[in-house]
Amino acid sequence: xxxxxxxxxxxxxxxxxxxxxxxxxxxxxxxxxxxxxxxxxxxxxxxxxxxxxxxxxxxxxxxxxxxxxxxxxxxxxxxxxxxxxxxxxxxxxxxxxxxxxxxxxxxxxxxxxxxxxxxxxxxxxxxxxxxxxxxxxxxxxxxxxxxxxxxxxxxxxxxxxxxxxxxxxxxxxxxxxxxxxxxxxxxxxxxxxxxxxxxxxxxxxxxxxxxxxxxxxxxxxxxxxxxxxxxxxxxxxxxxxxxxxxxxxxxxxxxxxxxxxxxxxxxxxxxxxxxxxxxxxxxxxxxxxxxxxxxxxxxxxxxxxxxxxxxxxxxxxxxxxxxxxxxxxxxxxxxxxxxx
Amino acid sequence: xxxxxxxxxxxxxxxxxxxxxxxxxxxxxxxxxxxxxxxxxxxxxxxxxxxxxxxxxxxxxxxxxxxxxxxxxxxxxxxxxxxxxxxxxxxxxxxxxxxxxxxxxxxxxxxxxxxxxxxxxxxxxxxxxxxxxxxxxxxxxxxxxxxxxxxxxxxxxxxxxxxxxxxxxxxxxxxxxxxxxxxxxxxxxxxxxxxxxxxxxxxxxxxxxxxxxxxxxxxxxxxxxxxxxxxxxxxxxxxxxxxxxxxxxxxxxxxxxxxxxxxxxxxxxxxxxxxxxxxxxxxxxxxxxxxxxxxxxxxxxxxxxxxxxxxxxxxxxxxxxxxxxxxxxxxxxxxxxxxx
Lengths: 340, 340
Fold this sequence. Notes:
Two copies of one chain form a homodimer.
Chain A: E1 2-6, H1 10-30, E2 35-41, E3 44-47, H2 54-64, H3 79-85, E4 90-93, H4 105-114, E5 118-121, H5 124-140, E6 145-146, H6 157-163, E7 170-176, H7 179-191, H8 195-204, H9 213-216, H10 219-233, E8 242-244, H11 252-260, E9 263-271, E10 275-283, E11 294-301, E12 305-312, H12 316-339
Parallel strand pairs in A: 1-2, 1-4, 4-5, 5-6, 8-10
Antiparallel strand pairs in A: 2-3, 7-9, 7-11, 9-10, 11-12
């Protein structure tokens, strides 16, 4: 399996490391030899049709901050050119999330599908903005579009909703889809911190970005909600269908009031008839009442009742392990196709 | 798909009702028409090779307490004879759990496999006592042995551990696998009830049996742990490999002491090197610290970290929905086999 990787940030590098470290094991257990044949980052690109030397990729990136030093002659190709010129079965989009217009990922995804590459994305932007259209495009081009790593980091939230409940129907989903804000709310609850102090602590711990709006205004949670609604419930919705309210107005006093009723406050993303993200009172006995940077999702099914999945919602290596799951899934379909 | 069903208790009846109610939907969505061609209960049996009239099955059982009134001429066949004489793709064992010798389920399972029927079991006894041997027997006879409903009721605990983490490795499992004792412990914690009073309340609510030993002595949890260890972690273990301690000696005072450390007490079943079931102090922030009759399982994976699944651990209809999942899984393999 030949792979083109766009984006060499935390997740991209983790994927390179994972494939490097687990190469022999993957061949032994799954008869699969993933080869990254091209990589692009903000400053350039590298190609080797026999498969890039992953150790060297990490070294070059570490030393120069860019992949462009890997092999000089092709360093100027951009991602779209890589997609056109490199033979590969899979394109992985690990470029940064942008929920305004989805770029540059949006263009890459469409380009990759047009050139009949299967697509694995961990970039929520294009999916949240246009998943119904992208799904159609994937079907039209007979390729697979997978994005396990976009929700729940390494926690298989999407797989659970999609694959573990065969024969049942998910009628609604409620969840905590953003670990940063859950950490902040937990600090407000347990330490009595104000929003600003909780945010500063989250920044200090590396959970929040310098520009924290994606997290604290509920946009990241909304993007993940859109992805779940499409994949798990078959709804054709995008970001503009979500009512979003972040946690800026939550105070420690709100937690004191909630506690008197046996409740706590969490940033709950939910989908049934409507898609809503907003701070919500829930019982302290609700399985969603998790603390810290965890993510948690409750699927309400028609026959098996309420089912909750809890796990770490982020982490480069965890998210890379979700990309690997998608690769194995795509590989299986390639094997079946080759047999028929 | 033709089915022989042994056992017409809560789960067996729920399965009949589910297949009756969802017949059209199952055909529409999965192109599957499950027909129950034979049923046995404690007092007799019924056969119709075209498929029993499920409405009538429920009526006859309701009125007479037995299936033997359905069609007089074959009412005397026992389950082993049904297995021998009835053409069917699937045998469903919904007979009561017995963890001493696994009977009568043990004999039925072996007999069904010998006659090349795929097997779906919701009876923990035979599996807990002999899963490694039964798995071998299934492979030898080229049939599928499925048992999704034995752990977590309708909650897909086994599927999650087995199917949602492709490419990863489960290194340990910890969980609350018995809802009855979790209800009792929650009552001891929140209402200060003694063990005896908590047990009486559980009996009154219908959660505990008249003979509660299976639950309160940790045997039910141990049986489920054995099943998980075999299926999810590939360990070849049985009941005799489990160190078991129940909740009889837990007191409300233990909860007061634990609370001072930010902890609570739950009956935790765990498997890593050893298999252990015993009352254990866990943090109140542990996702396993669920209240009431819930079940919860944390899978520790090598790459994606700790992943917890929470859901109702029992219920006839929920467990029947797990049987349906197994049927769809078996049906898929039959379709693939027919195609090749």
